[in-house]
Design a protein that fits this description.
The structure is a single chain. The protein is an alpha/beta fold. The chain has 2 domains: 118 residues, Rossmann fold (3-Layer(aba) Sandwich); 250 residues, no CATH class. The protein has 18 helices and 14 strands. A 6-stranded mixed β-sheet has the order 9-10-11-12-14-13, sandwiched between helices. The protein has a 5-stranded parallel β-sheet with strand order 2-3-4-1-5, with helices on both faces. A 3-stranded antiparallel β-sheet has the order 6-8-7. The model has no long low-confidence stretch (mean pLDDT 89).
Amino acid sequence: MLIQRKKDLNNIQRLLKGFPVTALLGPRQCGKTFLAHQVKADHYFDLENERHLRAFENPQLLLESLKGLIVIDEVQRRPDLFPVMRYLVDHHPKQKYLVLGSASGQLLRQSSESLAGRIAYCYLSGFSIQDVGETYFRKLWLRGGYPKAYLAASHDSCMEWLYQYLTTFFEKDIPQLGISIPSQTLKRFWTMLGNYHGQVINYSEIARSFGISDMTVRKYIDILEASFMIRVLRPWFSNIGKRLIKNPKIYFRDSGLFHRLLSVENEKDLLTHPKLGASWEGFAMETLIKSADLEPEEFFFWRTHAGAETDLIWRKRGKWWGAEFKYADAPSLTKSMIVSLEDLKLEHLWVIYPGNETYKVSSKVSVLPLMRISDINASWS
């Protein structure tokens, strides 16, 4: 089964037209290489191929005679290529580069220093609802968006693939990033984070439970965030005279990996699991963020110590908008929503749920099925 990713492909092609270098960043096995082959490169190098890696011992000699689109996969293995690319694109205007990488933090820093004004960034995750079709959103929620997990022949095969994926990540990928943390230590930390999915993180509590310092906890979370494994959602602060929550919330970015951690075997297990609401919140949030055409760092949550909160807020067209994520048959207007609308001056608040009907609960609050999440973009187009 071949699933086309038209939105992602169009975005890559748009950036390639406007910049000499485009970086396609995302976790391993999310489909970067598949999309790179679809843009029909003139030259393709994979730095996990030892022959290709050896060929880059003299990168300028290798690249300067080439023309057209040059793809370099797993570029994080040779970050020293960025200064070479800067020289080449400045002196060889017929060259374009598409570089693929799996570690955003280091690549962003290294590439932006060398290629300022010459590079654009495109972030890729797993399949989206737009890719698989709205009617398959429950399968996407259960299995997650990694292509090999979503397309697995059975759910058991999916869970086995996800287990092997995590093993490779902790035992191979993390050391390749130059991070000297024992894989078993990071695995145990990963498991502990499962309790905080969708919650405000308490660094001190984790530090005490794990027997490490607060700074070490932050370091581990930074690693997992930079590797696209978790999302750290920052709180929004505004001058409204209320005590606000200041620590971030964390989410596992792929619902399949989160369900693997929970040992969810099928949809029945998921629907009876205590983490059902948190799982829905994380999945629906990622779906909205993917569809909103905004940068990930432009999203926040808002919560007061008195209990009022909004799961997700963002600014677009000079106005603030918000979303709540509820696994419920028929969500209704709550006091917390009213407080959020007044305090944040939201233009509109959507309540995203797994049902089929769209309806309003007030002039500025709409209940919206996840399958129609693209309607949010239409509201400000």
